[in-house]
Amino acid sequence: MKKNFVAILACFVLIAVSTACKKSVNSGSSLTIENLAGTYGLKALVWTYNGININVYDSVPDCERDNLARLNTDKTVNFIDAGIVCDPPENEDGTWDLRNDSLIFSTNFTSAKIQSFDGKTLVLSGTPDGQPGVTATTTLEKQ
Hints:
Elements: H1 2-11, H2 33-36, E1 38-49, E2 52-55, H3 62-65, E3 68-71, E4 76-80, E5 92-99, E6 102-105, E7 111-117, E8 121-126, E9 134-142
Antiparallel strand pairs: 1-2, 1-3, 1-9, 3-4, 4-5, 5-6, 6-7, 7-8, 8-9
């Protein structure tokens, strides 16, 4: 289950397939470590395959859907098993970094391209591990 949440976050953070989207540019929404740092909850997860969008969020177990990811300014990341606790609990730590317009994680994920960030909502895209041809778009909301 921990892998699923991290994969979801990675999709919500691990989708290396880039598509052209405009990023919001206002104070507090520029792509910096300081602006991105914060605690995020999963709000949406959509996989796209052969032009078909699949709402994966609805199939994420409740104990994973309410988990949080805390991006710290020291570039550490904490995955927090919040709300309904999974069995076993899904707490995990690691590191993250901002490179150009992508988030890079130390977990088994490679990177997630930042599609947009308005200071509160972070939209990421990438390719989930073991899912060639799939683009995952993950929407996270700062708590």
